[in-house]
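sanity check this:
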Amino acid sequence: MKEGKRSPEPLPAATVIPVRDAEAGLEALMLRRNSKIAFGGMWVFPGGRIDPGDCDPAHPEDELATACRAAVREALEETGLAFRPEVLLPYSHWTPPAVAPRRYLTWFFLAPAPAGTVVVDGGEIREHLWIRPAAALERQRAGEIELAPPTWVTLHELSQQQTVAECLTVVRSREPERFETRIAVGPEGPTALWHGDAGYANGDANAAGARHRLRMRADGWSYERTV
């Protein structure tokens, strides 16, 4: 970044992680975004920017409730699925690195998928699929799909559960985790660092000690966590 150049002001956003039980195990709904818009070409969960109208006038200070309303609205617009706000569980919150060209402060919510047929517009959203989290990670490793780090980490966590009920139990038992990303760049590729990692404070991926990071190497990504 050039001297004096300021990072763009981050924008609030919200995402729903729709999950369902299938014969092969837990599946999540993913969408492929148009290559000409933000996160173009990537496979993501339904979601988008929080609009002023998403705020409840009676509780304008309630950030989580506002994000939940935005997530429900965006999911309906992008997939045609009508989620009830009360079923959305706060899952995580993501702050991108300061060097990101477009910065979104994003709440992720987990929710069982409601009944209905997924319908995408073919414009902003080009495709959709229900996929097992582990299968999505394998497709990313094979170069068949592109994922952003928050999506990758979420899929990695979801791959540890086999049913919607298991996912809901895990999420209800914990506080939503906040991830504020720092990027360290090395000869093998970039590494995303998060709270608790020994290199987080200085952005040093070579620092000895605890690990909480995503290594994004050309031959495959790997999540390391010892804290």
In short: The helical segments are 63-79, 133-141, 149-158, 164-172. The first strand starts at residue 11 and ends at 22.
